[in-house]
């Protein structure tokens, strides 16, 4: 993390942020269950991993300019699963960036791993404000 604003010009394809560690502890699970209902069993649902992905994205790239727009996301799960209580490590990387029609488009790749296993990979597409 840096104190200098992450502007479009400063974000370089291939640059990585992380790891950002998210614990699937009792507080996080309770918050998730408060919104989505009880989790049965001890495997972390995919939605909990995706929520951690979005948190990692927000925490990794700070400070950001106001006015960014979350334009899209893609998710690909590996089939491996984390268990409740595990710690998930997320790595955020600038995958690509381009200017189209006067707007700054950036795609970030986000990978999630737990216990030495890849859980998922996601892409977040953002229209960057500055």
From TrEMBL:
<dbReference type="InterPro" id="IPR029069">
    <property type="entry name" value="HotDog_dom_sf"/>
</dbReference>
<protein>
    <submittedName>
        <fullName>Uncharacterized protein</fullName>
    </submittedName>
</protein>
């Amino acid at each position: 993390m840096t104190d200098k604003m992450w502007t479009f010009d400063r974000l370089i394809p291939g640059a990585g942020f992380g790891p950002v560690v998210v614990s699937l502890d009792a507080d996080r699970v309770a918050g998730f269950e408060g919104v989505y209902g009880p989790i049965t069993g001890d495997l972390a649902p995919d939605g909990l991993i995706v929520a951690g992905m979005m948190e990692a994205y927000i925490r990794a790239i700070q400070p950001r300019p106001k006015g960014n727009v979350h334009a899209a996301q893609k998710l690909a799960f590996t089939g491996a699963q984390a268990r409740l209580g595990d710690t998930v490590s997320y790595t955020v990387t600038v995958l690509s960036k381009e200017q189209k029609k006067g707007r700054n488009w950036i795609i970030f790749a986000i990978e999630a791993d737990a216990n030495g296993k890849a859980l998922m990979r996601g892409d977040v597409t953002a229209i960057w404000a500055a």
